[in-house]
């Protein structure tokens, strides 16, 4: 039996290059990519996507939709790393740890949509707590996150590593119209009744994310505090390989969170910080925006799908 063919469409972007790097040398699959001269050839791209077993799309949203529309071979399975299909009901959301049975749904899916980088952290924190009834669905959620500049793709890398790098800002908040495309994704998959306030930022480091969600205990379900929130997260991720919940006694000693501490991995650390006297809790996630937030998640989903081939 021949090895499954995996086609990476958009293999020269930051996510596509890292997926190739993670898959290079594997003997259980055959990688297929397009030559530089063929990348804008719609006919050639359609031929490749219909000749593979699993396609990984690392494309802008419009191009990802075009690629999916070009599929006529019903055997082709797809992992879409763009945001084009993340709220579509006929696509399986590619966050294996999100809910019981999610890994199995991904393994058996024809169409899988990779989560966004920021939603990976936000949903990793919020989904178990909202679905478990500890955070009310109508809680006024606010999310602040700082990502490495590679989160902007080539434009971010060029700004911070190109000819004008000396003039690049050390820190910049964006999304000031509060209409970031990740907010509906977070709302839907967390089960929130209203759109969260999401404030993203870029720092002068290449990759890594720290994301935080502040909570007021008085607005939570009766009897819920930081200890209960931590216990719920610890239970949810007890068997997870790539998501770790920092023990409370360790979080009590933490003074700083380094967004780069898990770079190069597919892991995510979740933490709960508490001010019991004032009834305040801070949920925090740290992970690599190019790892668990992009290429690592895609390869994790690929392996699940290969397990059912």
Compact summary:
With 309 residues, the chain is α/β, with parallel strands linked by helices. It contains 10 helices and 13 strands. The protein folds into 2 domains: 5-115 and 294-306, Rossmann fold; 117-290, Dihydrodipicolinate Reductase, domain 2, CATH 3.30.360.
Topology:
Elements lengths: L4 E5 L4 H10 L6 E3 L9 H10 L2 E4 L3 H9 L7 E4 L11 E2 L8 H6 L3 E3 L3 H15 L10 E7 L5 H8 L9 E3 L8 H9 L6 E7 L5 E8 L9 H11 L6 E3 L2 H4 L16 E8 L4 E8 L3 H16 L3
Parallel strand pairs: 1-2, 1-3, 3-4, 4-6, 5-6, 7-9, 11-12
Antiparallel strand pairs: 7-10, 8-9, 10-13, 12-13
Helix pairs in contact: 1-10, 5-7
Describe the protein.
With about 300 residues, this protein is an alpha/beta fold. It has two domains: about 5-115 and about 295-305, NAD(P)-binding Rossmann-like Domain (Rossmann fold, 3-Layer(aba) Sandwich); about 115-290, 2-Layer Sandwich (Dihydrodipicolinate Reductase, domain 2), CATH 3.30.360.10. It is built from ten helices and 13 strands. The strands form two sheets. Strands 8-9-7-10-13-12-11 form a seven-stranded mixed β-sheet. Strands 2-1-3-4-6-5 form a six-stranded parallel β-sheet, sandwiched between helices. Strand 1 (about 5-10), helix 1 and strand 2 (about 30) form a beta-alpha-beta unit. Helix 1 (about 15-25) packs across helix 10 (about 290-305) and helix 5 packs parallel to helix 7. The mean pLDDT is about 95. Keywords: Amino-acid biosynthesis, Arginine biosynthesis, Cytoplasm, NADP, Oxidoreductase. One of its GO terms (cellular component) is cytoplasm. It is found in: Cytoplasm. It comes from Pandoraea eparura. This is N-acetyl-gamma-glutamyl-phosphate reductase.
């Amino acid at each position: 039996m021949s090895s499954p063919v995996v086609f990476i469409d958009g293999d020269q972007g930051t996510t596509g290059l890292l997926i190739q790097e993670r898959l290079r040398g594997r003997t259980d699959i055959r990688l297929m990519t397009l030559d530089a001269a063929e990348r804008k050839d719609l006919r050639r791209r359609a031929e490749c996507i219909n000749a593979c077993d699993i396609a990984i799309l690392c494309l802008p949203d419009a191009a990802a939709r075009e690629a999916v529309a070009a599929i006529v071979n019903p055997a082709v399975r797809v992992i879409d790393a763009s945001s084009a299909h993340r709220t579509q009901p006929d696509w399986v959301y590619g966050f294996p740890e999100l809910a019981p049975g999610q890994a199995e749904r991904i393994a058996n899916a024809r169409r899988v949509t990779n989560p966004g980088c920021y939603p990976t952290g936000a949903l990793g924190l919020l989904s178990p707590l909202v679905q478990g009834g500890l955070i009310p669905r109508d809680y006024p959620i606010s999310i602040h996150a700082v990502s490495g500049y590679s989160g902007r793709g080539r434009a971010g890398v060029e700004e911070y590593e190109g000819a004008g790098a000396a003039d690049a800002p050390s820190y910049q908040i964006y999304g000031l119209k509060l209409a970031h495309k990740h907010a509906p994704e977070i709302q839907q998959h967390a089960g929130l009744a209203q759109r969260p306030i999401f404030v993203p930022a870029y720092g002068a480091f290449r990759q890594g994310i720290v994301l935080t969600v502040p909570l007021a205990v008085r607005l939570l379900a009766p009897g819920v505090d930081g200890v209960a929130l931590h216990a719920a997260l610890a239970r949810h991720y007890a068997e997870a390989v790539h998501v770790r919940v920092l023990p409370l006694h360790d979080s009590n000693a933490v003074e700083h969170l380094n967004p780069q501490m898990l770079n190069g991995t597919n892991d995510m650390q979740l933490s709960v910080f508490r001010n019991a006297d004032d009834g305040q809790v801070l949920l925090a996630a740290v992970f690599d925006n190019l790892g668990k937030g992009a290429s690592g998640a895609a390869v994790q989903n690929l392996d699940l799908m290969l397990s059912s081939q």
